[in-house]
Amino acid sequence: MAEIYLIRHGQASFHSDNYDKLSDLGRLQSQYLGQYFTERAIKFDHIFTGSQLRHKQTADAILDHTNTPYDIHNGLNEYDFAALYKAYMAQHPTEDEAAKNGDRRVFYHRLKQALMLWSQDKLTGDLPESWADFTGRVADALAHIRRQSDGISLVVSSGGAISMAIGHILGLEAQKIIDLNLQIKNASFSHIYPGRDRFHLSSFNNIPHLDRPDRSDAITYS
Length: 222
What we know:
Elements: E1 3-8, H1 24-39, E2 46-49, H2 53-63, E3 70-72, H3 81-91, H4 104-119, H5 131-148, E4 152-157, H6 159-170, H7 174-181, E5 189-194, E6 199-206
Parallel strand pairs: 1-4, 2-3, 2-4
Antiparallel strand pairs: 1-5, 5-6
Helix pairs in contact: 1-2, 3-4, 4-7, 5-6, 6-7
């Protein structure tokens, strides 16, 4: 039976010059996940990633070298959250921009509002893609993975694309997809079985490799 382990990348470099790379903790989270798979003798027949650096770095840390080539699909990439945030703030110039001073709670509140407007085609400005475009490319990635998955597949992506994929599988509306997006932990996995005509979600947002007293500080969301 085919299986898919859908992974969110390890912690990225929030508030750095290049978000799209793993932090030291992000690499460690991914290595812990690799150890988890190794201890259970879970070996992967296919490896799918987005084209973003943090996806490749996460897969590299999980697998600790492999001869299996990566199948790269842009549909697994994250939406451009910086562009969405910028567009939201341009529409709401009087709102407090405390997030610029490092307040993540304010940043994520603004981002959630931007995502809702984006999903309703009410976010204006220079946007790299529409919500419909994002929905479609994630659906294309799922279809591609289904065609190729005849064993155990490792799929590394980002929180937004993962929540959209889960939304496709469960038939969720935009609000629920956005709510899921902001709950997905770094280096977590969702376990999925691809059926003949649809996917079946077995579990979501799992972190058994981090959910222990000596690793509680390694549970992150960014």
